[in-house]
Amino acid sequence: MTEFATERICGRLPGGGLAPDPVPAQRPSPLARVRVAARQVAYGALASYRDYRAMFTLRTWLFGWTVRLICQVLFFAGLGRLVGSPSAEAYLAFGNAAVLGPLGSLGVVSSTVGERVSGTLQFLLLSRGSTFLVLASRGLHWMADGLLTSTIALCVVSPLLGVPLHWAALPVILAVLCLSTVSCYCLALCMTSISVRRPGSRMYLTAGTTIALMLLAGVSTPVPESGATGLLARILPLTHGLSAARTLAAGGVLDLGAVAGEAAVAAGWGLLAWLLLTRALRHTVRTGSLSLR
Question: What is the model's pTM?
Answer without folding.
Answer: 0.84
